[in-house]
Structures are given as structure tokens and as C-alpha cells.
Amino acid sequence: MRPHDIVIAGGGIVGLATALQLQRRNPRLRIAILEKEKLVAAHQSSHNSGVIHSGIYYKPGSLRATNCKRGYDLLLRFCRENGVSFEICGKIIVATAEGEREQLDKIYRRGIENGLRGIRKISPEEAREIEPHVRAVEAVWVPQAGIVDYGEVARKYAEIFQKNGGEIFTGQKAKAVSIVRRNAVPATHAGGTAFRHMNDGVVVQTQNQEFEANIFVNCAGLYSDKIARLTGEKPDLQILPFRGEYYELKPASQHLVRNLIYPVPNPNFPFLGVHFTRMIHGGIEAGPNAVLAFQREGYSRWDLNIKELAETLAFPGFQKIARKYWRDGWAEMLRSYSKRRFVLALQRLVPEISAEDVIPGRSGVRAMACDRAGNLLDDFLILTRPRIVNVCNAPSPAATASLAVGETVAERVLEMMNDE
User: Fold this and answer.
1) Given this model, what pLDDT does residue 216 score?
2) Which regions of the chain are under pLDDT 50?
């Protein structure tokens, strides 16, 4: 097999967006994506809430905030140009008790700092004009929020990438990554090589094949820490898998929610809390909760990988998180096994909801990067070393921001190329 200029591990939305942005900047590049599943976008990219995030929650100036704002515009333009269905429907963030007003105000002020226009605080009466069945003592209206199918977005990325000459190899799981010394400069391919002179290269070994490249990019999501270690990187973190489970409103009860209803998140717990989301293809989802998955791709409470669970439980960072958040974690676990408790959480937002109104839905798994001190990383983390770029943490809003994150990674790759 001829060597590639760039090999990317991970055919999720970030890996695909990175490949697309590299291809746009230099159409001559020979780029390959290695995806361990039979199809692209098989995990986080197709198992999320489908919300187009406005960027209201993120620390001003952080990579999450800046990439969300840039990625939001790029995503909407991409969907319009390529016929991907989306809708900007807006959302309300709801304080259901007096004690939540202060936190709601902090979120509102952060949205202003992040440059959101049109957001405003609204009264209970105004909230019920938007969502007639909601309970609120105060709310924030966020007009920028929307809905889309990110699996469809990712598959469209893949389609365009392949149409323009990119290659996607499915069923190819990276097993080893090594820097190799070449004896000769690689031959130019049709259209010319993008490199003037490169003696070294990277070899990626899968279960049945070798892929040679000049630069390797790790966009492996739930396994990004493991792939990073294959490259020689020693990140002081581990990916912790947290499953989010959903219920769906029955058709007869879907009138209770018009669009998107979010609670004021618990400032002492690193998740947004269960909420209501209208889906782009129809229906209303309620959730997700956040429980430890017993394997990295554990979409069911019955999925178990002893080795992966042992790695999680033995990691000092997880042990510190467990001690810090055990009450909240226990409450989330109870909601996982008790429909009644899950519905009680939903009734804080929409009191009319009952257990008879909802049925079990799908689930997803979040990749949460945690350091040894027990801190969950709340920003994107991209590490570089010679010929290697590791995307070690890409939490929400990575799907909304995918094209902007792809730009950021592509720029780092191109800087390496220009240094040759």
C-alpha cells in the first residue's frame, strides 16, 4: 500500500471533520481514516441528544467556548449547503426553585460574555408562553439553540471526504503506532506530494494491515487515551465512560413539550441534568442521566467488560471523583434502575409528566477525561509531538463544534508539514 500523508484513527464526527478540513486546505493530501467499526459515526456521534449548542455554558475564552461559537456558524452553513435537516428552535433554561436563581444568573451572564445575542431572562409567565406546561420561577431564553441529527451530519462529512478522494477503512482498529526511519523519500503520488522531504514516517498497525503515513492523528473518542499511549504520549488522564439513558414521550403526551427545556445544572455536579429535547426526525426525548458505564462502550446497564471496569475503578482520579460525588452518583444510579425516580426528576420541569407518559428509549456513552487528581477536564485537550496529534478530550459541544475543532487540528497538522 502506498504511504499516506495523514492517517486518522477514529471515524467519528471529530475525525471526519478533521479529515474534511485538511482536504479543503490541501486537496492534494492523501488522507486515510481508520475506523474500528463497520460504519462511521457508530458511537458518540450517533448516540447524543442532537442539540445544536449555543455556547452559553462554557468558560469565556476556553477552547470549548471559542470552538462552539465558530463551529456553530460552520455547522449551520454546512447543513444548508448540503441538505442536512436542522432547526433553530431555541431553548429555555429553567429555575424551578428560588435557590436556583443565582446559578441561573451566572449562566445568563456567561452567555453574554460569550457573545450570544438575543438571550434574555424571562418571567414564569413568559416561560409558559414558550413551554405551556413548564414549571419556572425564572428562566433564560436562548434563541440560538437548535436540533439536528449528528449521525447524519457525520455521514455527510464522510460522503464528501470520499467523493473528493479521501479513503475510509472500516473494521480497522489501531493496535500499534510507531515512528519509523525511511531509507528513501517516498514517491510522489498523482497530483504531487505535499511534503518536500521526509525521511521519517509513522506506521499504524491494525489487526490485519499496516498503514504508513507522514503524520498520525488520534480522534478515537472513548479510546483516545489508549491510542495516545500507543503513540508514546503519556497523558496524565484516563477516559471515564458515563452512560446517559433516555426515555421517550409517548405520542399522546408529546404536546407537553414543544422544543427544548433544560434545568439549571447543579454547580457541584459535572453534568447538565435531565432535560427535554425535541428530535429533528420527530418525537421528544427525556434525559439523559449520568451513570458509570461498566465498559467503555457500555450502552446497556448489563454491558460489562471486567478489564475496562477494573481499569476505571483502579484509577486514582476516579476514586477521588467517586468520593466527591458519591451522593449525586448514587442518585443518578437509582434513576437508572427506577423509572419512578427518573420521572420525579422530569416532574421538576414539567409537573404533568407521569410514568404512563414515557417509555424507555436509547442511550449513549460520554467520554469524560479525568486526571489523577480527580479533576474532570472541562475543555478540549489536543496534544502534539513529532508527527503525532492526539485529540485527548473532546467533550460536548464537540459535535456542534466539529468543523471548528477540525480546523484547529488541521492547523496543527499543517504546521508540522510546513516545518519539514
Assistant:
1) 98
2) 184, 186-191, 194-198
| pTM (whole model) above 0.90 | yes
- Span between the terminal Cα atoms of the chain, in Å: 23
Q: pLDDT value at position 1?
A: 58
Please, are residues 41 and 10 in contact by the beta-carbon 8 Å criterion? Answer: no
C-alpha cell at 11: 471515524
Write down which residue in 143, 173, 203 finishes a domain. 143
**3-state SS assignment for residue 69:** helix
Provide the residue range defining the domain that includes 279: 237-371
Within this chain, do residues 243 and 339 fall inside the same structural domain, yes or no? yes
Residue 147's closest CA among 214, 91, 203?
A: 91
Rounded Cα distance, 173 and 11, in Å? 11
**Considering the domain boundaries, does residue 387 fall inside one?**
yes
109 lies in a domain?
yes
Strands (E), 237-371: 237-249, 260-263, 275-278, 284-287, 291-292, 358-371
Could you give the CA distance from residue 237 to residue 161 in angstroms, rounded to a whole number?
32
Residue 173: all three cell numbers together: 482498529
Q: What pLDDT does residue 354 have?
A: 97
- Output the nine-digit C-alpha cell for 62: 476556553
Q: Which amino acid type is present at position 122? A: I
Task: Look up residue 358 and give its DSSP letter.
Answer: E
Residue 10, amino acid: G
Instruction: Report yes or no: 278 and 284 within 8 Å, Cβ to Cβ.
Output: yes
Element (H, E) at 23: helix 13-25
Tell me which residue has cell 440560538: 144
Q: How many helices (H) and strands (E) does the chain have?
A: 11, 20
